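Hey,
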Amino acid sequence: MSDLRKEVRLRTFLKGRIVFNGGNASMDCLVRDLSNTGARLALSETAALPDGFDLVIPAKDRVYKATLRWRRSDGVGVAFIDDRMPVQPAAPAEISIAGLLQRIRDLEAENATLRRLVAEAEAAMLEQTA
């Protein structure tokens, strides 16, 4: 399969958030490859994804305007429209109780996943030393 990209994508393992529907809908993703012009995103569900959205990558302190280029069952390829838009913190008036509660639920779920992964890694290390 030939590679039609204009730039080489670097392999990454970054947490991302896809934001669409005027900021009313979002989903988590994993940024697997990244360049200045696009990315490959790993998703659990691609069917609900619109053709255009914002891709927030907190570790890079960036929000990318993205358009869908291809779609598979486990992920998508996107092209960036504008890669120079810094992350804008929400103004206090824009923060809602429902949004905060959802963020707390998301963080608690992420925390539980991380604790499980640490426990599995510790168990695997104990098995290797036994």
